[in-house]
Design a protein that fits this description.
The chain is built from 4 helices and 8 strands, in the order ββααβββαβαββ. The chain is globular. The structure holds coenzyme A.
């Protein structure tokens, strides 16, 4: 667990998710799905039950090259990040992550704290040597955050996401872990 200080000197706790967080995490994911068109699902389109979400959390926690973390502000989970490392020897050093923060809390550094925690964890694992992500090309807020944290654009995938009948390109970004 790490305690960060964000705006107004308030404490933000970033910690690994536990099975008992599953309901709150599902609520958050479904809410952000409706608040943002930058995810691979819309409102209530996630399609996981609480027990499936518990299983996902458990799988991440059991794996030495995966991470599932929550950002908790005044007792409430307001952001999540999950990273999955490769499941075979040749790709175990590499993985992708996704993250979501409730819209009411955008722009106050929550996403930065989540990525910071993941980067520290990655160094500590001594397994993870590369972190990758995919982001919609017009998601300027997320791209700004990733660039600030040292990620660089490695490529552009054409028409890789379709929302309400419209296709969007995504950027592939990566960061080496030293
Ligand atoms: C992307 C997301 C995780 C960012 O989280 P956040 O808590 O708002 O991030 P932070 O506050 O730590 O940082 C956001 C950065 O974007 C900047 N920013 C804010 N609004 C912006 C805008 N309209 N255009 C460009 N940059 C912007 C902020 O200034 C900040 O950068 P700075 O620290 O250099 O000032 C959050 O907006 C989110 O969950 N969005 C919906 C889901 C999503 O897009 N997930 C990522 C999919 S790849």
């Amino acid at each position: 667990m790490t305690i960060y200080t964000i705006y107004n000197d308030k404490e933000l706790i970033v910690r690994p998710a536990t099975r008992s967080d599953a309901d709150e995490i599902l609520q958050l994911l479904n809410t952000v799905g409706g608040e943002s068109d930058n995810l691979t699902y819309g409102s209530e389109e996630l399609g996981f039950t609480a027990s499936q979400e518990e299983e996902i959390i458990e799988q991440h926690n059991k794996s030495c090259n995966s991470l599932f973390i929550v950002a908790q502000y005044m007792g409430k989970i307001i952001g999540i990040l999950n990273f999955s490392g490769g499941n075979r020897g040749r790709i175990a050093h590499c993985g992708m992550f996704g993250m979501s923060v409730l819209k009411d809390y955008w722009g106050i550094g929550v996403g930065t704290c989540l990525v910071d925690f993941m980067l520290d964890w990655a160094v500590e694992t001594d397994i993870i040597k590369k972190i990758e992500l995919q982001v919609r090309v017009d998601n300027t807020r997320a791209i700004q955050l990733y660039k600030k944290m040292g990620f660089v654009v490695e490529g552009r995938l054409r028409k890789s996401i379709k929302i309400d009948g419209e296709y969007f390109d995504t950027l592939y970004m990566g960061k080496a872990i030293e």
